[in-house]
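ok here's Putative transporter:
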Amino acid sequence: MTSASQPASPATSPTPAAADTSPPAETPPPRRRGPRISYTTQVLLALAAGIALGYLARAANLDWLANSLGIIGSLFVQLLKLAVPPLVFTAVVSSIAHLRGVTNAARLAGQTLLWFAITGLAASLIGVALGLLTHPGRGVTLDLGTAKAPSKGGGWTDFLAGIVPTNPVGAFVQGNVLQIVFLGVVVGLAAVQIGDKAEPFLKLTDSVLEITQKALWWVILLAPIGTLGLIGKAVATYGWDLLAPLATFAIDVYVGCFLVLLVLYPAVLFFSGRLSPRKFYAGAWPAIQLGFVSRSSVGTMPLTQEVTIDRLGVPKDYAAFAVPFGATSKMDGCAAIYPALAAIFVAEVFGMDLSIPQLALIVLVSVVGSAATAGLTGAIVMLTLTLSTLGLPLAGAGLLLAIDPILDMMRTATNVAGQALIPVVVASREGILDRSIYDAPKGDMVIGGEAPKSDDVDRPVPAAPVKDEPAAQGAAAAPAEPVAAGQASAKNAG
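and the structure:
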């Protein structure tokens, strides 16, 4: 009896192993979800629905439907514009600050600006050539009396005077992107010169940039709805009877953009390390399609930067400099192809002949004045700048306002593609492009609904390889590289 009152010995007590032999509890079956529709498919479906609703509204004179579509599209564009001032300022300041950690920063910056100019020059030449071949304004009969000069015009003096703001707060209130870029450059350079004392400010700037990008990502997810409204309103407002006289010009703009996308850019990629154009467009596609829908290079900038880093293999520190500056000054669609074609169109409509020096001036204005487009929707500022420089009637710009939303979609898609292209080209030529990422881009970035964090990819810019004769010595020391690489990867992983 006494033994029964003793505590059970370890041998007879239940053990965890014995408990493991019991059958596991049944888990409820996973909830079935419908197939996910990719972001690209959502945009294409919205595009088709917008065209159908727009034609319905125009054919049946449904003003309420056209107005509703217009409100939806306007709200989407306004949400994009809302984030522009803080996004541009913090992105420019942060991009300049990031250059401190970039190897050969001055060389990379110079190469970036050089390739901006080279591709812009080639794109403007394509626009001039198309205009001279097709004569988009010849034989066009439009009511010139109803054409009004745009409210925002100006020549070179207005452009140069408008760079420096009289009131820094006013630049943000008015949303003047060019002035905000100027302020960002000045503040960024000053912060770099100050050094460690500017670190708290730069950390705050990075935080504001991260918050703005997160909020803008929510807007990006609404792009299919915005597409429905923007396309529907455009179709309902501008039927074929209004677009027919401008059909040749509109086709020229689209053909010019396709030539840049399918001929110029692939050639640049091929001669910059034999990069695959197909893989480039596979990687950059999320940003390109958003640019087409939103008609805003600045609004697309966060996504452009993410695809440049995560899908195209450009080092983060360099991409943080190149993409923001490209979003405000690299405009092959709005500032190169379009103004060249538009100037020839306006000259032909008004019965004016352009001389060879004037055609050369078009190309020069396109390359130098591309920052005037400011990365927002439309290219009216750049168009009026070109027309005023050539002495053409500014009222000619009013002739093209009717179809500007339709043209602006393709122009912006071309802009965004170029803004992703140049960092890839420069990184490849400098030997810092991660080819393993470039050759295998990830899937749909947007469908997950989460904005990628800026620290998700933290690849510091490596030193560009030195191409000199003692290469054999470097080959002899190759066995030591895996150790260094392992240490570096462990450091990054931590």
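+1. The two ends are 62 Å apart (CA to CA).
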